[in-house]
Specification:
10% strand; mainly alpha; 3-stranded parallel beta sheet; 145 residues
């Protein structure tokens, strides 16, 4: 299993966050805003049109449900008992809650390996795709040996 940049303990003040998402959700349907988001997520130019099309067509309630599920997620107690090996990948410039959550996942699972890219933010797979793919490929080969 590979986990990248997981928010494992939710966010503080989820009610406030949900209200803010509800108020700002219409922005996601604006092309100019979708372009700003794409830049912050390191969406490559060849995927930009697809990203904008998806972002501007996403129903408001779907966006709200998606962000609510992300904000409320908690690592289940069964995580410690997961029998497989786990590769955890994150960026050193991720938000603190993400970095701490990934470290906690690694601490709580005896068969995990945490690798943190020192220059990456929350867009690790798109920001450093060669590095990201090489880590996964190497881990898969080692795991199968």
């Amino acid at each position: 299993m590979v986990i990248t940049s997981a928010l494992t303990q939710g966010i503080p003040l989820p009610g406030l966050s949900h209200g803010l998402v509800r108020l700002t959700a219409p922005l996601a349907r604006q092309t100019w805003f979708a372009r700003l988001q794409a830049k912050s997520l390191y969406i490559p130019d060849d995927l930009l049109d697809d990203y904008i099309r998806t972002s501007t067509s996403l129903p408001r309630e779907s966006l709200i449900a998606l962000t609510r599920a992300n904000a409320e997620f908690r690592t289940p107690p069964a995580w410690r008992r997961f029998p497989g090996a786990v590769l955890l990948l994150a960026g050193a410039k991720e938000p603190r809650a993400l970095r701490e959550g990934m470290r906690q996942l690694g601490h709580d699972h005896s068969k995990s390996e945490l690798i943190i890219h020192e220059h990456a933010g929350h867009g690790l797979p798109l920001q450093y795709p060669e590095w990201f793919n090489a880590r996964i490929e190497g881990w898969m080969r080692a795991d199968r040996a």
